[in-house]
Structures are given as structure tokens and as C-alpha cells.
Amino acid sequence: MNIAPQRVVTLHYVLSDAQGQILDDSRARARPLEYLHGHDNIMAGLERELEGHAPGDRLNVTLPPQDAYGERNEKLVQSFGRSAFPQQELTPGMRFQTPGDDGPQIVTVLEVSDDEVLVDTNHPLAGQTLSYALEVLSVREANRAELAKGHPLPDDVTPAQVEDRKLS
């Protein structure tokens, strides 16, 4: 079965930056990526490259910033009052996940003073060309519950636990 919309895909990947430094390796974590194709579960550029591939296929994909996490936007580097951060200890490089207009976003602390905190709300990989070494492990039809949810169900959840039930 080939990768196409409405199918659950399981794959291993190695993510590297333009200098060849490995940023993430699903095999090293012993945790393959599982996603629902055609439902914006992964970057559009990566999904486009995977379309039509089958289990056993291996491919290398390089994505420029606009097809990955976007270009850096310096307007997303902002100062906030120190009181906006509940943590007493803040150091440059710390990352937080906060709610954003388009869903959760990662905030990186750049500088800390007594009164203000300078943060970067760009994705940490924004502006980078990324390379993926991919191996497709499996492809299957998504079930009704997965299609309704827009993502694969965890292994410990059965479709019956989330599917709508009509009352008689």
C-alpha cells in the first residue's frame, strides 16, 4: 500500500541540519513517527515528498526553510516584563511552550534582566535548511475514529472508545 491521504504512515527518520549535525533520530529513541497523511500532522514539504512511497522505501529529503519551519522573523523577538514569567530562575537558552494564536508555540529565553526578559518566539529550527533520511515502515488505512480526530490513535486507545455512538 502506498502513502496517500487518509492513510496512517509509520516511519523512521534522521533529521540533520545543513552542516550534517544530527538534530533528531527516531531509531535512536526507538520510537518511529506515526502520522495521518493529508491532515497536516507533519510539514507540508515532507508530506509532499513522501506521497506515493511504500513500506521499505528509503529516501533523503532536503527542505529549505520555507518548506520546513519557515524563515526567521526578527519581529518575533520581543521583551516582556519579568513578572510575566512565574519561574524565579530564568537563564538564556531556557525554552517554554506557551499558547499562541495558531496553537502552542515554543518560546526561547535570550536575555534576562531584573525587569525584562527578551524572548524569541520563532520555532527553534526557523530559517534552517533541514535534511531527512527517511525509511517507510508501514502504511495502512486510517479508521473512522482516526479520520475524525485527524491523527492516529495511541496504541492503548481503541476506535470504539472515541467513535460516536448513536443512541437507540
What tags apply to this protein structure?
168 residues; mainly beta; five-stranded antiparallel beta sheet; four-stranded antiparallel beta sheet; 3 helices; 9 strands; globular
Report on this model:
Strands 1, 2, 3, 4 and 9 form a five-stranded antiparallel beta sheet that branches. It is built from three helices and nine strands; from the N terminus they run βββαββββββαα. It is mainly β and 168 residues long. The radius of gyration is 20 Å and the shape is globular. Also involved in hydrogenase metallocenter assembly, probably by participating in the nickel insertion step. This function in hydrogenase biosynthesis requires chaperone activity and the presence of the metal-binding domain, but not PPIase activity. Residues 6-86 form the PPIase FKBP-type domain.
- The class by helix and strand makeup works out as mainly beta
- How many H/I helices? 3
Main beta-sheet annotation: 5 strands, antiparallel
Helix content: 10-25%
Shape: globular
How many strands? Answer: 9
Poorly predicted tracts of residues? none
| Cα distance spanning the termini | 37 Å
Order of helices and strands: EEEHEEEEEEHH
Q: State the oligomer.
A: single chain
Overall average pLDDT: 91
Strand content: 35-45%
- What value does the Rg take, in angstroms? 20 Å
Function: Also involved in hydrogenase metallocenter assembly, probably by participating in the nickel insertion step. This function in hydrogenase biosynthesis requires chaperone activity and the presence of the metal-binding domain, but not PPIase activity.
Keywords: Chaperone, Cytoplasm, Isomerase, Rotamase
Family: Belongs to the FKBP-type PPIase family.
GO molecular function: isomerase activity
